């Protein structure tokens, strides 16, 4: 599956730069894909690609900054490492303000490039994992019954079983049963994990 | 050729009294005479002998018809004479009222007149009698230049048995020259001489008007023919009637070839529809009445080559019906070419201008070099990786990487070579330049930018400037660069010294001095040290190349770029002098 594997997407209109970067990544064993222009990339983009972009800020056609904006508009999350030339400082600043991962000035130091790529890939992976976890939690939460959900919220908010029993007008024993049921359904083992899911949920609502 | 004398044409008289009536009157008269005479004779005859009686008998027998016949002829003759008188009177009145002079003359030298009508006095100032008695001869006061052609026309007409018609000048008794028109014909031969009859009438006024008209016409034709613009007239269906020389030259046709053709032959077929539409619109809205209105089209020469034209039409309408059109066509080729040249120059300048902010040019060069450098560096790194990690398939890939690396190294080299070549080429280009015109061009280029920043560029140009040998584009770059620096500085100073920046030209002993006087912050001691150093800048976004390159350009032109702070701490003046005569060297 295409989205299971992270790739480095190289977009540069200079054949030599693209080719050399491709070779470098190949020798490093990094999966990658080359595009000659931003249009070329957008034409092949289906929303499922994962990884990061290495993007020349100055290109004919859609330039780097515009592509960044387009991806943002599409809600596509792909960290971008910009490659800038001499005198492109204002553009680079703008790129960073728009949330670029980093920018590298030409001529690029390969070590820097590889490090930034790794960082970007890790970052992307982290975000993806988090997203996926959140999706998972949401799915699991949906399996709870209304009663279980009430008890989950109260437990996660730090109420004692006794208080919960009193509030809901049920026995403490029942609360305990529900609670263990919640833990099982949400596949958590500790109270701490439960609290995290609750917090994520709240964040998602906000 | 023989001619009978034809009777002059006489109007038909009142209806002739009938022969019967005349005869009746005659017979009656005969009878009356007989009755009166016979009884008297009878009395005489009483004593007469038979012989006398017999005679009287005979007389008696013949008297009545005799008297009647005599009476008849008498009356008839009487009537004829009266009729002739009436007719002569009428003819006289008629001839008198003719607008001119009727005549009868002999067709020989000087045309002696046999008869002329009263009109002769008014026509030539001579009396009728003078002419008829041949004391003066018509030919003697015919204009000497005209006698020969008139004679010829008459002879020719007579020979062909045709009426003649001639126009010529006469000299009147008062010495005036008068144009006359004559029409006549030979009416017969008398004593072996041809007799001419005809009418001569005064056409002086008409002739003068005609001459004036002809003069005006030929004047107009000369103007039209001398015009640079093509002038073509057509009928209402667009068929060409006349064309001037410019039109024939412009479309490469002779006049004869154009006449009778449709005007559409001068336009490429693809434009015919446009043209029809234009004409309809143009004429229906009467836009043709407006000066300078017209439309741009493409014209077609005889060899089908196309060229841009400006077309305007006006309608000639007279007698409210018959329409003609006058087309004025201007060849826009030269104008277009000039426009194109100007545009190209502008574009070139604009391009230079873009590259200019000379720092930016350096940035472009840097980019061009950085690309291959980046690639080289990455190929090298890849090679290292291959050496370290991939010893099995390594050699082939390594070779590949290194080969590509070499290509990129060469690419970087060629960029540098190109830059060198470019600067060398630029240095070589030099021409005679009017510095004021050059400054005005710069002004135009910088005006928009200045306007955006609310800065006013003022020109103070010396009128006494000789032309200077220089590379105009480079000098413009320098001035633009100085202008930009000045404007930046003024913006930084918050316009506390005003918003005026001055471009000044003046003549010095050695050349033309060009100054850019800003009202910004001026230059302090600290910046002074590094002002010409490459890559040093006081600007937020700048390469620090501008002044450094500007100075090189001015040096190459044999001048020196200098500056002086204005008095009152009111900005700085950058100036340089371009010497009258120098060799542009190939940079510093």
Rounded Rg of chain A: 24 Å
Kindly state the percentage of residues in helix of chain A: 55-70%
CATH topology grouping of the largest domain in chain A? Rossmann fold
Rg of chain B, rounded, reads 55 Å
N-to-C span of chain A? 32 Å
General shape of chain A: elongated
Which two chains have the most extensive interface, and how many residues on each? A-B, 24 and 30 residues
Please report the first level of CATH classification, the CATH class of the largest domain in chain A: Alpha Beta
Q: In total, how many beta strands of chain B?
A: 17
Reading off the top of the CATH hierarchy, the class of the largest domain in chain B is best stated as Alpha Beta
Strand arrangement, major sheet of chain A: 2-1-3-4-5
Which ranges of chain A are low-confidence, i.e. pLDDT below 50, for 5 or more consecutive residues? none
**What is the structural class of chain B?**
alpha+beta
Q: Major sheet of chain B: size, sense and barrel closure?
A: 5 strands, antiparallel
* Corresponding CATH superfamily of the largest domain in chain A: Response regulator
Largest sheet of chain A: 5 strands, parallel
């Amino acid at each position: 599956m295409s989205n299971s594997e992270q790739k480095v997407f190289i977009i540069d209109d200079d054949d030599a730069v693209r080719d050399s970067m491709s070779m470098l990544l190949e020798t490093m064993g990094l999966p990658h894909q080359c595009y000659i222009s931003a249009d070329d990339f957008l034409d092949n983009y289906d929303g499922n690609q994962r990884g990061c972009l290495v993007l020349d800020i100055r290109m004919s056609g859609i330039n780097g900054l515009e592509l960044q904006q387009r991806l943002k508009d599409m809600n596509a999350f792909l960290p971008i490492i910009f490659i800038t030339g001499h005198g492109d400082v204002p553009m680079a600043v703008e790129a960073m303000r728009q949330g670029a991962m980093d920018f590298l000035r030409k001529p690029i130091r390969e070590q820097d490039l590889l490090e930034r790529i790794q960082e970007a890939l890790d970052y992307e992976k982290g975000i993806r994992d988090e997203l996926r976890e959140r999706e998972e939690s949401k799915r699991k939460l949906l399996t709870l019954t209304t009663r279980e959900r009430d008890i989950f919220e109260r437990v996660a908010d730090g109420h004692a079983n006794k208080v919960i029993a009193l509030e809901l007008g049920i026995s403490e024993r029942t609360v305990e049963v529900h609670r263990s049921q919640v833990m099982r359904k949400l596949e958590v083992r500790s109270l701490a994990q439960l609290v995290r899911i609750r917090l994520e949920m709240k964040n998602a609502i906000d | 050729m023989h001619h009978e004398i034809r009777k002059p044409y006489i109007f038909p008289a009142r209806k002739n009294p009938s022969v019967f009536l005349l005869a009746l009157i005659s017979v009656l008269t005969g009878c009356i005479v007989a009755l009166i005479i016979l009884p008297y004779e009878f009395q005489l005859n009483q004593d007469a002998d038979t012989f006398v009686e017999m005679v009287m008998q005979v007389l008696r027998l013949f008297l009545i018809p005799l008297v009647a016949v005599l009476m008849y002829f008498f009356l008839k003759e009487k009537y004829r004479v009266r009729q002739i008188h009436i007719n002569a009177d009428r003819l006289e009145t008629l001839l008198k009222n003719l607008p001119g002079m009727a005549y009868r003359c002999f067709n020989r030298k000087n045309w002696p007149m046999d008869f002329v009508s009263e009109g002769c006095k008014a026509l030539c100032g001579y009396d009728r009698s003078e002419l008829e008695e041949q004391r003066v001869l018509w030919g003697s006061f015919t204009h000497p230049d005209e006698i020969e052609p008139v004679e010829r026309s008459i002879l020719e007409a007579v020979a062909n048995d045709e009426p003649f018609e001639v126009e010529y000048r006469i000299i009147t008794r008062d010495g005036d020259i008068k144009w006359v028109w004559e029409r006549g014909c030979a009416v017969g031969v008398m004593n072996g001489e041809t007799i001419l009859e005809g009418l001569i009438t005064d056409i002086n006024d008409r002739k003068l008007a005609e001459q004036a008209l002809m003069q005006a016409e030929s004047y107009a034709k000369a103007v039209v023919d001398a015009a640079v613009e093509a002038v073509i007239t057509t009928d209402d269906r667009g068929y060409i009637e006349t064309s001037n020389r410019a039109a024939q030259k412009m479309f490469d046709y002779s006049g004869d070839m154009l006449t009778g053709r449709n005007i559409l032959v001068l336009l490429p077929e693809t434009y015919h529809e446009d043209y029809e539409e234009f004409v309809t619109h143009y004429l229906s809205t009467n836009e043709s009445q407006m000066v300078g209105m017209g439309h741009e089209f493409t014209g077609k020469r005889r060899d089908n080559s196309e060229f841009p034209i400006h077309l305007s039409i006006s309608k000639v309408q007279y007698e409210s019906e018959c329409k003609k059109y006058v087309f004025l066509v201007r060849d826009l080729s030269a104008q277009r070419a000039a426009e194109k040249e100007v545009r190209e120059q502008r574009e070139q300048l604009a391009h230079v201008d873009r590259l200019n902010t000379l720092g930016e040019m350096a940035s472009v060069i840097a980019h061009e070099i950085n690309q291959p450098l980046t690639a080289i560096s990455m190929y090298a790194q890849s090679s290292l990786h291959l050496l370290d990690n991939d010893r099995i398939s390594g050699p082939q890939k390594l070779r590949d990487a290194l080969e590509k690396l070499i290509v990129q190294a060469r690419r970087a080299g060629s960029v540098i070579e190109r830059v060198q070549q470019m600067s060398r080429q630029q240095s070589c280009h030099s021409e005679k330049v009017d510095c004021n015109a050059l400054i005005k061009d710069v002004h135009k280029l910088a005006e928009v930018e200045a306007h955006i920043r609310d800065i006013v560029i003022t020109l103070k140009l010396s009128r006494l400037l000789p032309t200077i040998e220089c590379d105009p584009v480079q000098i413009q770059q320098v001035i633009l660069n100085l202008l930009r620096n000045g404007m930046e500085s003024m913006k930084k100073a918050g316009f506390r010294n005003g918003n005026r920046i001055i471009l000044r030209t003046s003549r010095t002993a050695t050349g033309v001095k060009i100054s850019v006087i800003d009202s910004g912050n001026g230059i302090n001691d600290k910046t002074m040290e590094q002002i010409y150093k490459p890559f040093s800048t006081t600007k937020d976004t700048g390469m620090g190349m501008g002044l450094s390159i500007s100075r090189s350009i001015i040096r190459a032109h044999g001048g020196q770029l200098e500056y002086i702070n204005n008095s009152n701490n009111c900005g700085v003046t950058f100036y340089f002098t371009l010497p009258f005569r120098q060799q542009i060297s190939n940079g510093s």
